[in-house]
Amino acid sequence: MRAAAEPARVAGPTAGAPVLWAKVIDHRKCIGCHACTVACKAEHGVPLGVNRTYVKQVEVGTWPHVRRHFQVTRCNQCDRPPCVEICPVTAMFRRPDGIVDFDRSVCIGCKACIAACPYDAIYMDPESGSAEKCNFCTHRIDLGLEPACVVVCPERAIVVGNLLDPTSEVSQLVAREKVEVRKPEKGTSPKLFYVEAGEFTLVPTGASLPPMHAYSQQREGYPSWGDGRPAPHRTAAAALLSYDVPHQAPWDWRVSGYTWTKSVSTGLYGLSVLLGWWGLGGSWQLGARLGALVFLALTAALLVADLKHPERFWTILVRPQWRSWLARGAFLLVGFGLVAGLDVGLRLVGVRGGQAVEGVGLVLAVLAAVYTAFLFAQAKARDLWQSPLLPVHLLAQAVVAGGGALLVTAFAGPSDPPGGLVWVYLGALAVHTALALSEGLGRHATEDGRLAAWQMVRGRWARAYWLGVGMGGILPGLASAGWLAGVLGWEALVVAGLLGLVGLLLYEHAYVQAGQAVPLS
Question: CA of 9: how far to CAs of 2, 75, 159, 312, 511, in Å?
Fold first, then answer.
């Protein structure tokens, strides 16, 4: 180990030469001593319970022929980092030299970067309340020093250098050795290379995932395969994850609730406009649009409540990062709220003929209903959410939520509701049910997507999923069809509306949580 009086220096580029920093982990040399973890914590003051880097251990084989495999796990310094693309306020950014860094002072704590990172490399710092991760020790790199983990490694298993310099040790290792990266299919172009890392460490689900490890315990709610049996897709793998650090799903019930309240808001407004254009208006329309504003306010409240820095929520409007659908969605919600509020204001003062306002409001309602599909698509770590039909599904859910709310409130009485509304509601229920079943029971393009669907229909979230599909799709569909056939009275439609709303909330929660129920590291 180098003496402290002579700090190790990294070979810097010549003036004007291009730089692309990269890191190689040589697992032929790694002895699993965790010195890199300790040095990183000391260098950056990383609090207990979170890590910028750690060494995962997997035991492979059966006694007495067992071998321990290590994997040094950290930020992959991607060329196309999804955390940067999804961050709504540029708290995550990529430097010209390829290092992905962060600014804790502007982070709003939305946790979108955690949902986007395929490598589970980002954490919410319990002290700063901001998203943090390995940043290549930029303060040392800028001084010409090696990162702290490189300095302390007793076997020099960690090597850093300029990938664009053919004479650097990193470039020569990448050119000479058989190096691998984690999850190349994600298209992020990682700049963290592994030499002779094992399949059971590189693939997170390649080993059994017990709730207890040899030296640590997982937080409740994060993925494990129950009693330590192999993951559902691996029935014969003699590999057991024996050391890991705690992980946690970034988005909880508040995100599930936000998708539901947004569906109710946009569905109420959109359906009230369409029914009015079809000549089915009435005094109920003002109440429906006021209800849309109430649920829009609840949506905003849930979004702000989910932030670790709620006092900074306004910064998303003054310094947006326009590639992020979280930032775009914020402006869509604000625009929808302003136009819907103007519409309600015009009605309250008795102004009629506001079809232009209604038309703009309807367009914004549709966009506000479906933008979450594109936000989820930016969460590249979550394969369950990568469905091209998700925008259609979210639009159908908005119609189900809006139609259900109208049946429960505006038309809850002995007078018959418009038949057109019931037909639209029934059609939306059919589309929602078909897509919900296809998400859970259909084929998925990736193994992680299949495992997330397994968790949704058979695992931790199965009860919420099946209750959601039954109450939010099948039963209200039967009740609506019974009313249309003249077999059931208006009471059946009230029940259909209530079931649709409750079932949709249950399904949303199962879908959002199951999407995060597959381990990433």
Answer: 11, 22, 12, 39, 49
The phi-psi region of residue 167 (left if phi > 0; otherwise alpha if psi is between -120 and 50; otherwise beta) is alpha
Q: Which residue has the tokens 């589970």?
A: 120
The amino acid that residue 468 corresponds to is G
Query: For residues 50 and 102, what is the distance between their CA atoms, to the nearest angstrom?
Result: 16
pLDDT confidence tier of residue 354, bands split at 50, 70 and 90: confident
| Pairwise CA distance, residues 95 & 305, whole Å | 31
* Omega prior to 64 cis, within 30 of 0: yes
Q: In sequence order, what are the beta bridge partners of 23?
A: 160, 192
Residue 211 is predicted with a pLDDT of 66
The answer to whether 396 and 428 have CB atoms below 8 angstroms apart is yes
Q: How far is CA 292 from the centre of its chain?
A: 26
d(CA 384, CA 402): 25
Residue 32 tokens, joined: 């699993």
Tally the residues of the chain. 521
According to the model, what pLDDT value does residue 230 have?
38
pTM of the model: 0.91
% of the chain residues with pLDDT over 90: 69
Q: How many beta carbons lie within 10 A of that of residue 410, not counting itself?
A: 23
Query: Please, is 9 exposed, middle or buried when counting C-beta atoms within 10 Å of its C-beta (0-12, 13-18, 19+)?
Result: exposed
pLDDT by residue (tens digit) across 211-250? 666 666 665 555 544 433 334 444 345 787 888 887 778 9
Q: What average pLDDT does range 495-510 have in this prediction?
A: 95
Closest by CA to 182, choosing from 380, 444, 384, is 380
pLDDT > 80? residue 17: no
Radius of gyration in angstroms for the set of CA atoms belonging to the chain, rounded to a whole number? 26
- Give whole-number Cα distances, 259 to 123, 131, 165, 368, 430, in Å: 24, 23, 48, 10, 19
Report which of residues 351 and 508 the model is more confident about: 508
For residues 74 and 135, what is the distance between their CA atoms, to the nearest angstrom? 9
| Number of Cβ within a 10 Å radius of residue 494 | 19
Name the residue among 309, 296, 453 with its Cα closest to residue 361. 296
pLDDT of residue 8: 53
